[in-house]
């Protein structure tokens, strides 16, 4: 029998692959910048959250301070440098964002795959629970639990993860339901594969892509939620340079010193938009209509 | 080759039904009998062809054999062992001996795995079969065996054509060195030219490896090409079964006769052939199969008796058939397809 060569399939690949995709690259670079700022920024700016410098308070952005340094974002009502504050806040926001997503993503995906794969009463219980939780506005739920637990980094992560697992669970379940009935899963079962083997080799690889996309969308929302909680005094303890707290600090000075609230707000918005675009792009990339599965 | 007198696979009165649930507590509202009392056996190294139109239960039978459906009753014996009674663990061990070729080569291969991973998946499940150090060589061997270039082992399924994908599926099944291959319409999704190549490959493999096939198709000429015995199914039952020769020469069941008359033949000018029988109406719903003979609603020979009394499979002219008037059908059926 002759050996047949593989058929060339020019349409099988995404037409964009190999070309520089600016709409993917720009937001990705932007996010990298934030991560770098969060990791290395505190070593460069020396922000001290309890230091006050009343002689230099309420300086507008780009003022040269008395010690010769440039206040890029201005100073707040007790003379702290806002740029340093925003950099330090990046560390908190990114930590909260990443850890919350890891926790919510792991728990949500596991429950979703389990519910979708097993079906039956387990599916009903998990999904009704998810529906009930979705009926509450998630920020209201977060406020409620945060008020009980009290402000701290760990509590913020727990509270936000508790409000987010549902999204991951629903996506993971939907994808599991779609993949579970496909013939290649039957083929694995025919080979004698255990349920664990099927979940590991057939279900999870198919679930990962949509979950990653959901994670990018949720990342922005989690960071905003953390800022909101902190703004309300229910997130990070007062004194920590969270973006939400910085914005809250400046709300009495909006008319005279707009930059105190505006600067951290702009930085926050820019990150959320960048991550949002990144998620959008990733979704297009993983779309089965654009890349053959 | 010595053949055991006992069949490799034998099925006794197999019944598989699907519950239709609805309402608040998901109560069973009705029951669809997909397979309703099917019996057959296949000898080692032989091929049984199962034909019938869509919805007649042939795929459900296949899925019951490989353990994807749980039978409601009946016995499935493989090499003397009742596999439908086996514990899940034993059933997974037995899976090694009973493999399946799927109909749709585009759905049956995991799109996220390379050919090497797909073919080798069975060895992850049955690690004792091939030592890890020999798996690469064994994969190359299998790929060459089914007519694929081993250099392509790192490609993904979407980079192959339908026929090549079906070869990958065959290699995956062969990797476990099975004794029984259940082929569920393995060529109906392929181009005609590729169909012939794939059928020839399956025939070669059977000859070399002594495989036993249960071959499901709706194409009569395909079944004739590969099978030793044939079972014609209608609405969950076998209506006629026996060796290929007598059945193709002179069908003894009106349904078989109608199927045969609808099959295209090569060189039609050289073949004497009765006029084509066109069946009227639709396949009745398996939710409420007609009383008496299940075929009587569409049979041009149906009489009063057919509406009341269900015909049993009985020996007629060298095969078993389930028709009250089988002798008349044999007499009516002129030899078909022979020049």
UniProtKB/TrEMBL annotation, chain A:
It holds the Pfam family BPD_transp_1. PROSITE patterns: ABC_TM1. Residues 90-279 form the ABC transmembrane type-1 domain. It comes from the Bacteria. Keywords: Cell membrane, Membrane, Peptide transport, Protein transport, Transmembrane, Transmembrane helix, Transport. Belongs to the binding-protein-dependent transport system permease family. It is found in: Cell membrane. The keyword Metal-binding does not apply. This is ABC transporter permease. Its main location: membrane. The lineage of its organism: Bacteria, Pseudomonadati, Pseudomonadota, Alphaproteobacteria, Hyphomicrobiales. CDD domains: TM_PBP2. The chain crosses the membrane at residues 24-44, 92-117, 153-172, 203-236, 256-278. The keyword Protein transport applies. It comes from Microvirga puerhi. It is a multi-pass membrane protein.
TrEMBL record, chain B:
Pfam families: ABC_tran (PF00005), oligo_HPY (PF08352). CDD domains: ABC_NikE_OppD_transporters. It is found in: Cell inner membrane. Residues 20-260 form the ABC transporter domain. It comes from the Bacteria. InterPro entries: AAA+_ATPase, ABC_transp_ATP-bind, ABC_transporter-like_ATP-bd, ABC_transporter-like_CS, Oligopep_ABC_C, P-loop_NTPase. This is Dipeptide ABC transporter ATP-binding protein. The keyword Transmembrane does not apply. NCBIfam families: oligo_HPY, PRK11308.1. Keywords: ATP-binding, Nucleotide-binding, Transport. It comes from Microvirga puerhi. Its main location: membrane. PANTHER family: D,D-DIPEPTIDE TRANSPORT ATP-BINDING PROTEIN DDPF-RELATED, TRANSPORT ATP-BINDING PROTEIN. It is a peripheral membrane protein. GO terms for molecular function: ATP binding.
């Amino acid at each position: 029998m002759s050996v047949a060569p593989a058929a060339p399939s020019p349409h099988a690949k995404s037409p964009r692959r190999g070309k520089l995709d600016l709409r993917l690259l720009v937001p990705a670079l932007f996010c990298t910048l934030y991560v770098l700022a969060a990791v290395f920024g505190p070593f460069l700016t020396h922000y001290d959250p309890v230091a006050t410098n009343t002689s230099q308070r309420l300086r507008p952005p780009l003022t040269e301070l008395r010690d010769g340094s440039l206040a890029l974002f201005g100073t707040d009502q007790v003379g702290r440098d806002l740029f340093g504050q925003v950099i330090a806040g990046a560390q908190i926001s990114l930590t909260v964002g990443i850890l919350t997503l890891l926790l919510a993503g792991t728990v949500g995906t596991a429950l979703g795959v389990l519910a979708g794969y097993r079906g039956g009463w387990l599916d009903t219980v998990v999904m009704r629970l998810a529906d009930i939780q979705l009926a509450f506005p998630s920020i209201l739920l977060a406020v409620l639990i945060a008020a009980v637990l009290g402000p701290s980094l760990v509590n913020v992560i727990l509270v936000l993860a508790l409000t987010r697992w549902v999204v991951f669970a629903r996506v993971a379940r939907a994808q599991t339901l779609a993949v579970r009935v496909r013939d290649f899963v039957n083929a694995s079962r025919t080979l004698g594969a255990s349920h664990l083997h099927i979940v590991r080799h057939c279900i999870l690889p198919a679930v990962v892509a949509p979950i990653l996309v959901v994670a990018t969308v949720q990342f922005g929302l989690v960071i905003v939620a953390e800022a909101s909680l902190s703004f309300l005094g229910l997130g990070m303890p007062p004194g920590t340079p969270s973006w939400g707290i910085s914005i809250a600090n400046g709300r009495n000075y909006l008319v005279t010193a707009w930059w105190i609230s505006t600067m951290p707000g702009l930085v926050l918005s820019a990150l959320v938009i960048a991550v949002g675009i990144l998620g959008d792009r990733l979704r297009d990339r993983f779309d089965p209509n654009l890349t053959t599965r | 080759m010595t053949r055991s007198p006992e069949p490799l696979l034998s099925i006794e009165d197999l019944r598989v039904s699907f519950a239709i649930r609805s309402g608040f507590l998901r109560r069973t509202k009705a029951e669809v009998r997909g397979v309703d009392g099917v019996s057959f056996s296949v000898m080692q190294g032989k091929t049984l062809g199962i034909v019938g139109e869509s919805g007649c239960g042939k795929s459900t039978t296949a899925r019951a054999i490989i353990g994807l459906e749980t039978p409601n009753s009946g016995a499935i014996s493989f090499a003397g062992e009742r596999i439908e009674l086996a514990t899940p663990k034993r059933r997974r061990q037995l899976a090694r001996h009973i493999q399946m070729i799927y109909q749709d080569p585009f759905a049956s291969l995991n799109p996220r795995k390379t050919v090497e991973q797909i073919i080798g998946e069975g060895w992850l499940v049955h690690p004792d079969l091939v030592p890890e150090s020999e798996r690469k060589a064994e994969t190359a061997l299998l790929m060459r065996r089914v007519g694929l270039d081993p250099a392509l082992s790192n490609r993904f399924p979407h980079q192959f054509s339908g026929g090549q994908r079906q070869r990958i599926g065959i290699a995956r099944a062969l990797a476990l060195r099975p004794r029984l291959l259940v082929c569920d319409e393995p060529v109906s999704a392929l181009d005609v030219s590729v169909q012939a190549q794939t059928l020839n490959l399956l025939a070669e493999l059977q000859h070399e490896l002594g495989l036993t096939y249960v071959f499901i198709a709706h194409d009569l000429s395909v079944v004739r090409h590969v099978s030793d015995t044939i079972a014609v199914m209608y609405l969950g039952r076998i209506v006629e079964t026996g060796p290929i020769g007598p059945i193709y020469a002179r069908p003894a069941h009106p349904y078989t006769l109608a199927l045969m008359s609808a099959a295209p033949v090569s060189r039609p000018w050289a073949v004497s052939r009765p006029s084509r029988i066109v069946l009227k109406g639709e396949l009745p719903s398996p939710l409420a199969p007609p009383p008496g003979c299940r075929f009587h609603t569409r049979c041009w020979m149906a009489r009063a008796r057919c509406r009341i009394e269900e015909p049993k499979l009985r020996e007629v002219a060298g095969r078993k058939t389930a028709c009250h008037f089988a002798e008349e059908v044999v007499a009516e059926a002129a030899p078909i397809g022979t020049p």
